[in-house]
Amino acid sequence: xxxxxxxxxIVHVLARSVQAGHIPGPDAxxxxxxxxxxxxxxxxxxxxxxxxxxxxxxxxxxxxxx
Length: 66
Description:
Helix content is about 70%, strand content about 0%. It has four helices and no strands. It has helices spanning about 5-20, 25-35, 35-55, 60-65. Helix 1 packs antiparallel against helix 2 (about 25-35). The longest helix has 19 residues, at about 35-55. It starts with 5 loop residues before the first helix and ends with a helix. The model has no long low-confidence stretch (mean pLDDT about 90).
């Protein structure tokens, strides 16, 4: 469960740090990170799920007991 919240934590801390000016960046980057932080989180989880599906495609029947 701890690893499940790591991605949102990293994305939100990064976005907040850029927003506060602790990490320098242009205004466009700041806007994208702050307004689209959940899009980054969803994209990361989708990428992980797709990579797992592709890498373990042959083992899925064993996972689901077929």
